[in-house]
Design a protein that fits this description.
Length: 352
């Protein structure tokens, strides 16, 4: 039977349509599933910040032992953990209680994290819930599939008694997480101009929240320069500590200015930036930002790191940022000076 030209065209169209559907199907299957789990008061505050701004492409969980605090948090799912141990009253600064609370509720938490390809664990170190639960959850997830990225803060100097708790947690977390992003609240306060305590917490929440939101959205949505899941895995898979710096820039050389500020404003004292294993550069700017500007600015970063370091990029346009740019530079595989400092208050204030 002769096939007419029309029939041939119809067949070609059918095959084309099937290909298109298949692409959509595969895209759905491989789309990274990103979950952000905020643990304890600080972690839940960061999640609340992200939820109130809105985030595309990720799921937000808030986990706490403190029912009153959880009641005022915003998230896609809130979970009261360890009710039998803490009776909804928090952990009072004892990380071992936070750890036990997570373990008590781990079955439910695991269900929430099923199928996740990236899990961000967010906590302010130094208290009980966030510190204990983050360590326990990171250890439960280690090696089970998802890329586990811890994002934690080091206590303010006025909270000296909490330093040793934080230091011990970092040692555990850096072994269990693929990468542990550490932000020193003290450096953050200096960078943002010595603010009062409450305001400094707000700045910390915004910074941590923006970092996670930017990475998640650049991976999950079409961006000026897409950051893909494998890019992130490449620089974050290997265990270790990561430091971030954030910077703003304005007017004609805004991206360059923002990169310089981000490099100068690292939020963790690290021993040697040139030893970084990988670098993530994320740029956001207004609709007037050009690709050329973004790439040129990248050369500034590459000059300061080892030529063998792996570099990954992401850039997104935010129409509200006309005339300005915001940059995150994240150095992975670095050593933190904080871990090597002796704790002067160890004897005087030992808690446990
Ligand atoms: N970024 C940020 N850090 C905070 C905030 N609140 C507290 N912190 C820091 O995080 C540390 C831990 O505090 P919380 O998160 O309140 O403690 P928790 O994990 O709830 O622990 P417990 O209350 O003891 O169960 C504090 O020592 C502060 O350094 C916040 O809103 N944002
Ligand atoms: Mg608390």
């Amino acid at each position: 039977m002769d096939v007419t030209q029309q029939e041939r065209m119809n067949m070609t169209k059918q095959i084309y349509d099937m290909d298109q559907e298949r692409i959509e199907e595969v895209a759905k299957l491989v789309r990274p599933r990103i979950t952000v789990a905020g643990l304890g008061g600080a972690g839940c505050n960061v999640v609340t910040w992200i939820k109130s701004r809105g985030m595309v492409g990720g799921r937000l969980l808030a986990l706490n032992t403190d029912a009153n605090h959880l009641a005022i948090c915003k998230a896609d799912r809130r979970m009261l953990i360890g009710e039998n141990i803490t009776h909804g009253l928090g952990c009072g600064g004892y990380p071992e209680r936070g750890e036990a609370a997570l373990k008590e509720t781990f079955g439910d938490v695991r269900k929430e994290l099923e199928g996740a390809s990236i899990v961000f664990l967010v906590a302010g170190l130094g208290g009980g819930t966030g510190t204990g639960a983050a360590c326990a959850l990171a250890e439960e997830l280690a090696g089970k599939g998802p890329l586990v990225v811890g994002v934690v803060t080091i206590p303010f100097e006025i909270e000296r008694v909490r330093m040793e708790t934080a230091r011990n947690a970092i040692k555990r977390l850096q072994k269990a997480c693929n990468t542990l992003v550490v932000i020193d609240n003290n450096k953050l306060v200096k960078v943002s101009g010595d603010l009062p305590f409450q305001q400094a917490l707000g700045v910390a929440n915004e910074l941590v929240g923006t970092f996670i939101k930017d990475i998640t959205e650049t991976i999950s949505t079409a961006s000026l320069i897409n950051l893909d899941y494998m890019d992130l895995r490449t620089i974050m898979e290997k265990q270790g500590i990561a430091a971030i710096g954030a910077g703003w820039g304005h007017d004609s050389n805004r991206v360059e200015m923002a990169v310089k500020n981000a490099l100068d404003g690292q939020l963790l004292d690290i021993n040697d930036a040139t030893k970084a294993f990988g670098v993530l550069i994320h740029v956001s700017g207004g609709e007037d930002m050009t690709l050329e500007e973004v790439y040129n600015a990248g050369h500034l970063v590459t000059r300061t790191i080892s030529p063998s370091a792996k570099i990954v990029w992401g850039a997104k346009v935010n129409p509200e940022m006309e005339g300005s740019a915001h940059v995150f530079v994240c150095l992975t595989g670095v050593e933190s000076a904080f871990l090597n400092q002796p704790n002067q208050n160890k004897k005087k204030f030992k808690l446990f």
